[in-house]
Amino acid sequence: xxxxxxxxxxxxxxxxxxxxxxxxxxxxxxxxxxxxxxxxxxxxxxxxxxxxxxxxxxxxxxxxxxxxxxxxxxxxxxxxxxxxxxxxxxxxxxxxxxxxxxxxxxxxxxxxxxxxxxxxxxxxxxxxxxxxxxxxxxxxxxxxxxxxxxxxxxxxxxxxxxxxxxxxxxxxxxxxxxxxxxxxxxxxxxxxxxxxxxxxxxxxxxxxxxxxxxxxxxxxxxxxxxxxxxxxxxxxxxxxxxxxxxxxxxxxxxxxxxxxxxxxxxxxxxxxxxxxxxxxxxxxxxxxxx
Length: 290
Ligand SMILES: Nc1ncnc2c1ncn2[C@@H]1O[C@H](COP(=O)(O)OP(=O)(O)OP(=O)(O)O)[C@@H](O)[C@H]1O
Hints:
Residues 4-226 form the ABC transporter domain. GO terms for molecular function: ATP binding; ATP hydrolysis activity. Keywords: ATP-binding, Nucleotide-binding, Transport. InterPro entries: AAA+_ATPase, ABC_transporter-like_ATP-bd, ABC_transporter-like_CS, ABC_transporter_ATP-binding, P-loop_NTPase. The longest helix is centred in the middle third of the chain and has 16 residues, at 159-174. Helix 3 (90-98) packs across helix 4 and helix 3 packs parallel to helix 5. The chain has a six-stranded mixed sheet, sandwiched between helices. Strands 11-12-10-13 form a four-stranded antiparallel sheet. It is of the alpha/beta class. The chain is globular, with a radius of gyration of 22 Å. A hairpin with a 2-residue loop joins strand 11 and strand 12 (248-253). It has helices spanning 42-49, 69-74, 90-98, 107-113, 129-141, 159-174, 186-192, 210-216, 230-234, 256-263, 280-288; strands spanning 2-13, 16-27, 31-36, 56-61, 75-78, 147-151, 178-182, 195-200, 203-208, 220-225, 239-245, 248-253, 271-277. The chain folds into two domains: 2-209, 3-Layer(aba) Sandwich (Rossmann fold), CATH 3.40.50; 217-288, Alpha-Beta Plaits, CATH 3.30.70. The protein is built from eleven helices and 13 strands. Bound molecules: adenosine-5'-triphosphate. Adenosine-5'-triphosphate (ATP) binds next to helix 1.
Protein backbone atom coordinates (compact mmCIF):
# COMPACT_ATOMS: atom_id res chain seq x y z
CA UNK A 1 0.00 0.00 0.00
CA UNK A 2 1.41 3.37 -1.03
CA UNK A 3 1.57 5.83 1.85
CA UNK A 4 3.27 8.75 0.10
CA UNK A 5 3.33 9.63 -3.56
CA UNK A 6 5.05 12.70 -4.96
CA UNK A 7 5.20 13.63 -8.63
CA UNK A 8 7.19 16.49 -10.15
CA UNK A 9 7.40 18.38 -6.87
CA UNK A 10 9.08 21.75 -7.13
CA UNK A 11 9.71 24.36 -4.51
CA UNK A 12 11.36 27.80 -4.43
CA UNK A 13 12.29 30.09 -1.59
CA UNK A 14 11.93 33.38 -3.46
CA UNK A 15 14.17 33.09 -6.50
CA UNK A 16 16.08 30.15 -5.02
CA UNK A 17 14.94 26.83 -6.48
CA UNK A 18 15.42 24.25 -3.72
CA UNK A 19 13.46 21.28 -5.09
CA UNK A 20 13.59 21.01 -8.88
CA UNK A 21 11.78 17.79 -9.73
CA UNK A 22 11.01 15.31 -7.01
CA UNK A 23 9.34 11.97 -7.79
CA UNK A 24 9.06 9.20 -5.24
CA UNK A 25 6.74 6.83 -3.43
CA UNK A 26 6.86 5.32 0.04
CA UNK A 27 5.13 2.04 0.83
CA UNK A 28 3.52 1.13 4.14
CA UNK A 29 6.01 -0.12 6.74
CA UNK A 30 9.07 1.18 4.94
CA UNK A 31 11.85 3.06 6.68
CA UNK A 32 13.23 5.62 4.29
CA UNK A 33 16.62 7.22 4.87
CA UNK A 34 16.48 10.68 3.31
CA UNK A 35 20.01 11.94 2.92
CA UNK A 36 21.67 14.93 1.36
CA UNK A 37 24.19 17.62 2.17
CA UNK A 38 23.40 20.59 4.41
CA UNK A 39 20.92 22.75 2.55
CA UNK A 40 19.95 20.02 0.04
CA UNK A 41 16.26 20.51 0.84
CA UNK A 42 15.43 17.55 3.12
CA UNK A 43 13.61 19.60 5.75
CA UNK A 44 11.86 21.56 3.02
CA UNK A 45 10.55 18.32 1.52
CA UNK A 46 9.27 17.10 4.90
CA UNK A 47 7.59 20.44 5.50
CA UNK A 48 5.86 20.16 2.11
CA UNK A 49 4.62 16.66 2.96
CA UNK A 50 3.34 18.00 6.27
CA UNK A 51 1.39 20.69 4.42
CA UNK A 52 3.46 23.45 6.04
CA UNK A 53 4.91 24.70 2.74
CA UNK A 54 3.10 24.91 -0.60
CA UNK A 55 4.80 23.23 -3.57
CA UNK A 56 4.18 22.87 -7.29
CA UNK A 57 3.45 19.37 -8.51
CA UNK A 58 1.40 16.64 -6.88
CA UNK A 59 1.79 14.98 -3.50
CA UNK A 60 -0.44 12.65 -1.54
CA UNK A 61 0.16 11.55 2.02
CA UNK A 62 -2.05 8.72 3.30
CA UNK A 63 -4.15 9.23 0.14
CA UNK A 64 -4.84 12.85 1.07
CA UNK A 65 -3.43 16.21 0.18
CA UNK A 66 -0.68 17.15 2.67
CA UNK A 67 -1.86 18.91 5.81
CA UNK A 68 -5.45 17.60 6.13
CA UNK A 69 -6.95 16.95 9.57
CA UNK A 70 -6.83 13.22 8.82
CA UNK A 71 -3.12 13.47 8.08
CA UNK A 72 -2.47 15.44 11.24
CA UNK A 73 -4.22 12.73 13.26
CA UNK A 74 -2.10 9.95 11.74
CA UNK A 75 1.25 11.63 11.39
CA UNK A 76 3.92 12.30 13.99
CA UNK A 77 6.85 14.54 13.26
CA UNK A 78 10.09 15.53 14.86
CA UNK A 79 11.40 18.56 13.05
CA UNK A 80 14.53 20.60 13.56
CA UNK A 81 14.18 23.33 16.14
CA UNK A 82 10.46 22.80 16.54
CA UNK A 83 10.48 22.69 20.34
CA UNK A 84 8.56 25.58 21.81
CA UNK A 85 10.46 26.50 24.98
CA UNK A 86 7.77 27.19 27.51
CA UNK A 87 7.60 27.08 31.29
CA UNK A 88 5.55 23.88 31.38
CA UNK A 89 6.89 20.51 32.49
CA UNK A 90 7.92 17.60 30.30
CA UNK A 91 4.83 15.60 31.25
CA UNK A 92 2.53 18.56 30.61
CA UNK A 93 4.16 19.02 27.21
CA UNK A 94 3.47 15.39 26.30
CA UNK A 95 -0.09 15.67 27.63
CA UNK A 96 -0.65 18.76 25.49
CA UNK A 97 0.64 16.92 22.43
CA UNK A 98 -1.48 13.84 23.23
CA UNK A 99 -4.62 16.00 23.37
CA UNK A 100 -4.18 16.76 19.65
CA UNK A 101 -4.63 13.11 18.65
CA UNK A 102 -7.71 10.87 18.61
CA UNK A 103 -5.91 7.63 19.53
CA UNK A 104 -3.09 9.00 21.71
CA UNK A 105 -0.95 6.83 23.96
CA UNK A 106 -0.48 7.40 27.69
CA UNK A 107 1.99 10.33 28.10
CA UNK A 108 3.36 8.75 31.29
CA UNK A 109 4.23 5.58 29.34
CA UNK A 110 5.90 7.68 26.62
CA UNK A 111 7.95 9.40 29.31
CA UNK A 112 9.36 6.02 30.29
CA UNK A 113 9.89 4.99 26.67
CA UNK A 114 12.02 8.05 25.97
CA UNK A 115 14.00 7.47 29.16
CA UNK A 116 12.87 10.68 30.92
CA UNK A 117 10.71 9.23 33.70
CA UNK A 118 12.83 11.09 36.26
CA UNK A 119 12.36 14.40 34.41
CA UNK A 120 8.54 14.33 34.06
CA UNK A 121 8.04 17.24 36.46
CA UNK A 122 11.03 19.20 35.27
CA UNK A 123 10.42 22.35 33.26
CA UNK A 124 11.15 22.13 29.54
CA UNK A 125 13.38 25.20 29.85
CA UNK A 126 15.69 23.35 32.25
CA UNK A 127 16.43 20.39 29.94
CA UNK A 128 19.68 19.77 28.09
CA UNK A 129 19.74 19.80 24.28
CA UNK A 130 19.79 16.00 24.08
CA UNK A 131 16.92 15.69 26.57
CA UNK A 132 14.92 18.19 24.51
CA UNK A 133 15.40 15.99 21.44
CA UNK A 134 14.01 13.05 23.41
CA UNK A 135 10.95 15.09 24.39
CA UNK A 136 10.43 16.05 20.74
CA UNK A 137 10.61 12.35 19.88
CA UNK A 138 8.07 11.62 22.61
CA UNK A 139 5.76 14.25 21.13
CA UNK A 140 6.04 12.57 17.73
CA UNK A 141 5.19 9.19 19.28
CA UNK A 142 2.45 10.12 21.72
CA UNK A 143 -0.26 10.34 19.04
CA UNK A 144 0.45 6.71 18.08
CA UNK A 145 0.88 7.76 14.44
CA UNK A 146 1.09 5.39 11.45
CA UNK A 147 3.57 7.64 9.71
CA UNK A 148 6.56 9.43 11.24
CA UNK A 149 8.79 12.15 9.79
CA UNK A 150 11.98 12.36 11.82
CA UNK A 151 14.30 15.19 10.80
CA UNK A 152 17.80 14.81 12.25
CA UNK A 153 16.33 12.96 15.23
CA UNK A 154 19.62 12.11 16.93
CA UNK A 155 21.31 15.51 16.55
CA UNK A 156 22.62 16.48 19.99
CA UNK A 157 21.99 13.06 21.55
CA UNK A 158 24.87 11.28 23.29
CA UNK A 159 25.99 7.82 22.15
CA UNK A 160 23.74 5.93 24.58
CA UNK A 161 20.70 8.03 23.71
CA UNK A 162 21.35 7.44 20.00
CA UNK A 163 21.62 3.70 20.55
CA UNK A 164 18.33 3.73 22.53
CA UNK A 165 16.75 5.82 19.82
CA UNK A 166 17.62 3.41 16.99
CA UNK A 167 16.42 0.47 19.05
CA UNK A 168 13.17 2.32 19.48
CA UNK A 169 12.95 2.81 15.71
CA UNK A 170 13.44 -0.94 15.29
CA UNK A 171 10.47 -1.57 17.61
CA UNK A 172 8.38 0.91 15.63
CA UNK A 173 9.34 -0.94 12.44
CA UNK A 174 8.03 -4.15 13.98
CA UNK A 175 4.77 -2.34 14.72
CA UNK A 176 4.46 -1.62 10.98
CA UNK A 177 5.03 2.13 11.19
CA UNK A 178 6.20 3.96 8.09
CA UNK A 179 9.05 6.40 8.63
CA UNK A 180 11.09 8.95 6.76
CA UNK A 181 14.29 9.75 8.65
CA UNK A 182 16.89 12.33 7.72
CA UNK A 183 20.30 12.08 9.31
CA UNK A 184 23.92 13.00 8.78
CA UNK A 185 24.93 9.92 10.80
CA UNK A 186 25.18 7.80 7.68
CA UNK A 187 26.55 4.78 9.53
CA UNK A 188 23.38 4.69 11.59
CA UNK A 189 21.06 5.34 8.67
CA UNK A 190 22.61 2.58 6.55
CA UNK A 191 21.78 0.06 9.25
CA UNK A 192 18.16 1.02 9.73
CA UNK A 193 16.84 2.21 6.36
CA UNK A 194 15.05 -0.17 4.01
CA UNK A 195 15.54 2.29 1.21
CA UNK A 196 17.66 5.38 0.70
CA UNK A 197 16.72 8.56 -1.11
CA UNK A 198 19.70 10.77 -1.95
CA UNK A 199 18.82 14.39 -2.58
CA UNK A 200 21.30 16.38 -4.65
CA UNK A 201 20.81 19.62 -6.47
CA UNK A 202 17.02 19.54 -6.06
CA UNK A 203 16.54 15.99 -7.36
CA UNK A 204 16.88 12.43 -6.13
CA UNK A 205 20.09 11.12 -7.66
CA UNK A 206 19.50 7.72 -6.10
CA UNK A 207 16.50 5.78 -4.81
CA UNK A 208 16.99 2.19 -3.68
CA UNK A 209 18.51 -0.14 -1.13
CA UNK A 210 22.03 0.07 0.24
CA UNK A 211 22.87 -3.11 -1.68
CA UNK A 212 21.75 -1.48 -4.91
CA UNK A 213 23.75 1.63 -4.12
CA UNK A 214 26.85 -0.42 -3.31
CA UNK A 215 26.40 -2.37 -6.54
CA UNK A 216 26.51 0.93 -8.45
CA UNK A 217 29.69 1.89 -6.61
CA UNK A 218 31.40 -1.46 -6.58
CA UNK A 219 34.47 -1.07 -4.49
CA UNK A 220 36.08 -3.16 -1.83
CA UNK A 221 38.18 -1.61 0.90
CA UNK A 222 40.96 -3.80 2.27
CA UNK A 223 42.26 -2.42 5.55
CA UNK A 224 45.41 -3.65 7.26
CA UNK A 225 48.29 -2.58 9.44
CA UNK A 226 51.71 -2.71 7.85
CA UNK A 227 55.10 -1.10 7.81
CA UNK A 228 55.29 -1.46 4.03
CA UNK A 229 55.15 1.71 1.95
CA UNK A 230 51.76 2.61 0.33
CA UNK A 231 53.48 2.86 -3.08
CA UNK A 232 53.88 -0.93 -3.10
CA UNK A 233 50.10 -1.34 -3.08
CA UNK A 234 49.25 1.37 -5.59
CA UNK A 235 50.48 -0.76 -8.49
CA UNK A 236 48.50 -3.90 -7.57
CA UNK A 237 45.70 -5.07 -9.87
CA UNK A 238 42.35 -3.24 -9.54
CA UNK A 239 43.65 -0.85 -6.86
CA UNK A 240 42.21 2.66 -7.31
CA UNK A 241 43.46 4.39 -4.18
CA UNK A 242 45.59 3.77 -1.11
CA UNK A 243 45.09 5.84 2.05
CA UNK A 244 47.58 5.80 4.90
CA UNK A 245 47.01 6.87 8.50
CA UNK A 246 50.03 5.91 10.56
CA UNK A 247 50.45 2.16 10.10
CA UNK A 248 46.84 1.74 8.94
CA UNK A 249 46.40 1.29 5.19
CA UNK A 250 43.11 1.37 3.32
CA UNK A 251 43.41 -0.14 -0.11
CA UNK A 252 40.48 0.64 -2.39
CA UNK A 253 39.90 -1.89 -5.13
CA UNK A 254 37.36 -2.38 -7.91
CA UNK A 255 37.92 -6.15 -7.71
CA UNK A 256 38.55 -7.31 -4.16
CA UNK A 257 39.30 -10.94 -5.14
CA UNK A 258 41.95 -9.92 -7.65
CA UNK A 259 43.66 -7.50 -5.25
CA UNK A 260 43.58 -10.01 -2.38
CA UNK A 261 45.28 -12.66 -4.54
CA UNK A 262 48.02 -10.15 -5.35
CA UNK A 263 48.47 -9.48 -1.63
CA UNK A 264 49.19 -13.14 -0.79
CA UNK A 265 53.02 -12.89 -1.12
CA UNK A 266 52.96 -9.95 1.31
CA UNK A 267 50.72 -11.58 3.91
CA UNK A 268 53.56 -12.03 6.43
CA UNK A 269 53.87 -8.27 6.64
CA UNK A 270 50.17 -7.44 6.79
CA UNK A 271 48.30 -7.50 10.08
CA UNK A 272 44.68 -7.12 11.22
CA UNK A 273 43.37 -7.46 7.68
CA UNK A 274 39.69 -6.68 7.12
CA UNK A 275 37.73 -6.51 3.91
CA UNK A 276 34.61 -4.39 3.58
CA UNK A 277 32.39 -2.99 0.86
CA UNK A 278 32.21 0.77 0.56
CA UNK A 279 30.10 2.31 3.30
CA UNK A 280 27.21 4.66 2.63
CA UNK A 281 29.40 7.47 3.93
CA UNK A 282 32.22 6.63 1.47
CA UNK A 283 29.75 6.51 -1.42
CA UNK A 284 28.01 9.70 -0.33
CA UNK A 285 31.32 11.56 -0.13
CA UNK A 286 32.24 10.26 -3.59
CA UNK A 287 28.85 11.30 -5.01
CA UNK A 288 28.88 14.78 -3.53
CA UNK A 289 32.60 15.35 -3.77
CA UNK A 290 32.54 16.52 -0.15
N1 LIG B 1 12.74 30.11 5.29
C1 LIG B 1 13.66 30.08 4.34
N2 LIG B 1 13.85 31.13 3.52
C2 LIG B 1 14.78 31.11 2.55
N3 LIG B 1 15.60 30.04 2.31
C3 LIG B 1 15.45 28.98 3.10
C4 LIG B 1 14.48 28.93 4.16
N4 LIG B 1 14.57 27.73 4.75
C5 LIG B 1 15.55 27.05 4.11
N5 LIG B 1 16.07 27.80 3.12
C6 LIG B 1 17.14 27.38 2.18
O1 LIG B 1 16.65 26.27 1.44
C7 LIG B 1 17.67 25.32 1.24
C8 LIG B 1 17.20 23.96 1.77
O2 LIG B 1 17.09 24.03 3.17
P1 LIG B 1 16.66 22.78 4.04
O3 LIG B 1 16.58 23.23 5.44
O4 LIG B 1 15.47 22.15 3.44
O5 LIG B 1 17.92 21.81 3.81
P2 LIG B 1 18.32 20.46 4.57
O6 LIG B 1 18.66 19.47 3.50
O7 LIG B 1 17.28 20.08 5.54
O8 LIG B 1 19.65 20.92 5.30
P3 LIG B 1 20.34 20.44 6.70
O9 LIG B 1 20.94 19.11 6.45
O10 LIG B 1 21.38 21.49 6.90
O11 LIG B 1 19.29 20.45 7.75
C9 LIG B 1 18.91 25.85 1.93
O12 LIG B 1 19.71 26.47 0.97
C10 LIG B 1 18.37 26.88 2.91
O13 LIG B 1 19.29 27.92 3.10
